[in-house]
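Side project, low priority. Logging it here so it doesn't get lost.
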Amino acid sequence: MNELLELAKSYPVVTLLGPRQSGKTTLVKLAFPSKPYVNLEAIDIREIAKLDPRGFLNQYPNGAILDEIQRAPELLSYIQVIVDENPSKGLYILTGSHQVELQQAVSQSLAGRTALLQLLPMSLEELNNANIEISLDEALIKGGYPRIFKDNLDPTKAYRSYFQTYVERDLRQLINIKNISQFQRFVHICAGRIGQILNLEGIGGDVGVSSHTIKEWMSILESSFIIFRLLPYYENFGKRLIKSPKLYFTDVGLASYLLGIENTTQMARDPLRGSLVENLVILELIKYRLNQGKDSQLYYFRDAHGHEIDVIFQTGSKLIPIEIKAAATFNKSFLKNLNFFEKLVGERCTYSALIYAGEQQQLIGKCKLLPYTHATKILN
């Protein structure tokens, strides 16, 4: 919230993007309790806004919270005129759930007039601050959507409803898909490839559609905050490097549901548990950076000889390699790829990190051993 309030002191418009039910509405209402709130999901309100944008906005001379602004993008051009004539800061607070289209529309109409923030589902730190204690396997199943914790929902049923609503409502707004069951199969297959290098042809073969269609569907999942891609870090290190992104989900609870994992017993035995732990930790790092209003600056590294680092954090000219392990016990073999990368980049790597499922915090040479609950310490 602090970043949101600070930006509202510097910009006439603040735009908060994020998946549905991630807490955007709750956050902006809490941050700006005196501002009028308008939900553009309501059909009657949306129709009025589209038919008479100027008259609609004139109802709120001191600005307003406009929720789900992508439902009435026509308002953005009129907001531009208003904020150009009114020097007030924090006049309009916008929220949206469709990333690509809304970012493009905002950039065109409100360039230089709005700050952009992203809000993903709750982090482990936020759960801890709310006095919610859960084990690692529970975190993998429950994910981070606030309602699951607030209303003590069964995560399997909650994510089933979430996914059905997404397919029936958001998906139809974004694209005309003739075979919904084929798209659903595609999403399930994506969940089975968490942490893997993206292979459009391979997924297309499994689903039975072209790689062009898979590329389009990937963009849809990304724009609606279902998945994200971790880009590779590559320089001329004298080796052939992998330059395709890796695939991850924006919420591990949804991924676990799509994989058919319903309880901690199943999770403990599932062959993809390690991939889900990796996904969870990477999300923690991304959320930490986003909550500070910063780009993640996170990448992965892999060369043609199989040397791989789960995460590279770039800060200035420095590169911090981070390995993630689902094991609760440290093994010195975990340091192999970290040591390789340290030698490869030399002085650009001042320290590295190994994040695991254990509880010890320790310095092992240049490597900081951290439990997954303290993963973000490596970014400080």
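Brief comment: The CA atoms of residues 176 and 217 lie 11 Å apart.
Revisit when time allows.
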